[in-house]
Design a protein that fits this description.
424 residues, Cytochrome p450, five-stranded mixed beta sheet, three-stranded mixed beta sheet, 50% helix, disordered N terminus, Cytochrome P450 hydroxylase, Cyt_P450, monooxygenase
Length: 424
């Protein structure tokens, strides 16, 4: 199959001195700190790039947007890849990974139709914009509570004092997890949050498998309690669907709950971390937002575009495809670079400028097609409330000097910590 076949644009020829070929090095600390220069060169010089590991990276906006909606591409079978690592753990008497792998098999982002269609239709109703909008007062209440805890100290960590507890607590509230268990689910969500990233050791996978076992054991008990005493929450709703027959099994319901914590935490936490950093490095934009709170929706979209919480989507072609003169064999791993697409100047002029009133729309931070982010509406509301409150109540917010401690991941992008100061 041939897709968007056109010659790549050569770049870097202005000086007449040839540059070394650009490389997509997942292990380069400089890439983790700032991947956008590499992305720019890839878009110009090698928009269908094959890495030294044999995977492909697609970086142009038009390509990524089109291919995300193309059913020629299926999901990458991460659960099987993880399960195969069990043999190495077993040889070292370190356990196995089957619990983790089996739980992931029904994650929406790792399912193709028809399973994806069925599962998504059963969960979608709880994540429509209208349904999520009703949670705004609860989000505001939680943001106010978290900020009240640190207000008297004159400093906080945006990631661990605000973003993480907000994201996990809101998902827990939607599901109906009692407050006394929020600390446990926060620990589990944090322990499992790196499972989609390929740069994990066997020991880390073993730890995540143990966390998955704890998570599933707790939620099986919670399901049993909700069967006895239903409430107005997502777990009770899913149980009602499950008890109707063959629409949703308990294992599928467990997988849905686990995915909501993993995806919900990473997307929201990185949005708030990256967005705060962008505002603090662009004080003029922060002041514009403070002076005109009505700009908040556009500001959130610009934060998502400028430094996307999810940088890469993985896909696998079901048949050979040709793109820009290169043939990608069926079964090869492809990274669709959302972060690069959102900095493509053909779609977003002057893409490295942070502008909360940017007129160009259409960022791909929430992916696209059937795998468009389920929790996008919730992440948007959490971001709107968090940033509106921050710029209103902390006008002298300042970044603590020093290098940013970025997460050592490639799928997700965000600071590990983001310490700031303010007047108590």
């Amino acid at each position: 199959m041939e897709l968007l076949d056109q010659p790549a644009v050569n770049g870097g020829a202005g000086s007449g001195v040839p540059r070394a070929p650009v490389k997509f090095n997942l292990f380069d600390p400089a890439f983790h700190a700032d991947p956008y220069e590499v992305y720019a060169r890839l878009r110009e010089e090698d928009p269908v790039h094959r890495t030294v590991m044999g995977a492909w990276v697609i970086t142009r906006y038009a390509d990524v947007k089109t291919l995300l909606r193309d059913n020629t591409f299926g999901v990458f079978d991460i659960p099987t890849r993880i399960e195969r690592k069990s043999q190495f753990l077993e040889k070292k008497n370190m356990g196995e990974l089957r619990t983790l792998a089996q739980a992931m098999r029904r994650w929406l982002m790792l399912c193709d139709p028809p399973d994806h269609t069925r599962l998504r239709s059963l969960v979608n109703r709880s994540f429509t914009p209208g349904a999520v909008e009703s949670l705004r007062p609860r989000v505001q209440e939680m943001v106010d509570r978290l900020l009240a805890r640190v207000r008297h100290t004159g400093r906080m960590d945006i990631v661990n004092d605000l973003a993480c507890p907000l994201a996990v607590t809101m998902i827990a509230s939607m599901l109906g997890v009692p407050e006394e268990a929020h600390a446990s689910v926060t620990r589990w969500a944090d322990g499992l949050s790196r499972v989609l990233d390929p740069l994990r050791s066997l020991e880390q996978y073993a730890e995540m498998n143990n966390v998955a076992q704890e998570f599933l054991a707790y939620f099986r008990e919670l399901f049993a309690e909700r069967r006895r005493h239903p409430r107005e929450d997502l777990i009770s709703s899913l149980i009602a669907v499950t008890d109707q027959g063959d629409k949703l099994t308990e294992d599928e319901m467990l997988s849905v709950c686990m995915l909501l914590f993993i995806a919900g935490e990473k997307t929201t936490v990185n949005l708030i971390g990256n967005g705060t950093l962008a505002l603090l490095k662009n004080r003029g934009e922060m002041e514009r937002l403070r002076q005109d709170p009505s700009l908040i929706r556009g500001a959130i979209d610009e934060m998502l575009r400028y430094d996307s919480p999810v940088q890469l989507n993985t896909r696998v072609p079901k048949k050979d495809v040709t793109l820009h003169g290169k043939t990608i064999p069926a079964g090869d791993l492809i990274y669709f670079s959302l972060g690069s697409a959102n900095r493509d100047p053909t779609q977003f002029p002057d893409p490295d400028r942070f502008d909360i009133t940017r007129r160009e729309k259409g960022h791909l931070a929430f992916s696209g097609g059937i795998h468009y982010c389920l929790g996008a509406a919730l992440a948007l509301i959490e971001g709107q409330v968090a940033f509106s409150t921050l710029v209103r109540e902390f006008p002298d917010l300042e970044l603590v000097p020093g290098e940013i401690d970025w997460q050592k991941e490639i799928i997700f992008r965000g600071p590990q910590t983001l310490p700031v100061t303010f007047s108590p």
